[in-house]
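To whoever picks this up:

The nightly regression suite flagged Terminase as changed. Nothing in the input moved, so I suspect the structure step. Input below, exactly as stored in the fixture:
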Amino acid sequence: MAKQVTVNIQKEINPHFKPVWTTDKPYNILRGGRNSFKSSVIALKLVFMMLLYITMGKKANVVVIRKVASTIRDSVFLKIQWALEKFGILGEFKSTVAPFKLVHKATGSTFYFYGSDDFQKLKSNDIGDLIAVWYEEAAEFGSNEEFDQTNTTFMRQKHDDADMVRFFWSYNPPRNPYSWINEWSNSMTGEKGWLVHDSSYKNDELGFVTAQMLQDIERIKNNDYDYYRYLYLGEPVGLGTNVYNMSLFKSMSELPSDDRVIYLFYSMDTGHSVSATSCGCYGLTAKGKVIRLNGYYYSPAGQANKKAPSDLSKDIYEFIKATATQAPYKGARIKKRTIDSAEGALRNQYYKDHGQHWKPVNKLKKVDMVDYVHDLLAQGRFYYLENPLPTGLKHCDSNDIFIEEHKKYMWIEGTQNSDNPQVVKEDDHTVDEFQYMCVSNARDLRLKV
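Regenerated output under the current build:
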């Protein structure tokens, strides 16, 4: 038998979430902006549901799913542990990370954590005694059909004492109102058996949103109001024709004297014989600024003798050596080299020539890749050097092409009103490598993860 647990739920859950806490519906969609604490509410709810069985000495299981397994440890795994601690029973559970599980020592009640990228394992596991399933960051999934494939499996494993298996979804609505998950959740509003709940940081009455959080929110609100509406109010604000607000690309005539570059990041989009190769050098400062310091850009257009991968390997190596040893940031550590995941020849050539690996980017839908850049821009932390420190190398020492390509970067007319908006794929090589840099280094750059 578990010890008697006393928790003042009214001090842990905002009144706005009372419909979620008291719901008797089998299907519950929680959508809202960042810092709305919807995930915290679901975590507390799931622990409470399991406790009802544990206090009776019975076993009950819960499944928690994210689209990609590698995101589990730093998100839902920690969130459920946080909720167990709130109820004062974390010590009654043992944890494992291969696979991710939190197991109640006395009853065997278990929180199972899965990535749906390993669907066959998810489908074949016969868990049993199931009372609830939670899909966190549900917008990461490809369609509601992915849920349908697993839900039926879980329903068959219902606990004998439960009236049903309850399902929870939580996500920040994509800015595109025609995203499949926005259309799907809207279609479920008002349906029998479904709760669709909206929230934002403005619904906080208990002081969970700190003064520091509010300062960050206000900064983004002042920099890019539409992005603020999307990120913090959870509003699908839509997509304009131009992808980026160029006023958020801040020029810098020289490096700040009161801030130093502590890390360097290199990112490359490649072309060879047909299209251009762009390699950007970016610096992260101690105060959190992200600066495009320099760029290598080679276009084979109009060239009779085009550069081979061996030529580009040499060029890029010299570019990195020259930029990484510039006096103002020569002590900065090279944190990561990122490359287009479709590029194999130059990556292999570079390793053969120089013994150094380039990490292939984990590509997402274009609209999601763009969103990482939007996050950085809206925070007001991105800058570029108007006149990069000279390396004296050919095809380097200018950020002009970088700015011009971003100015011309546009959505293809008409595709905004679809689940998969597309961009004009012309003169976009610096644009792509900037996206790769933001996506691959999101945690270091304090972007959405």
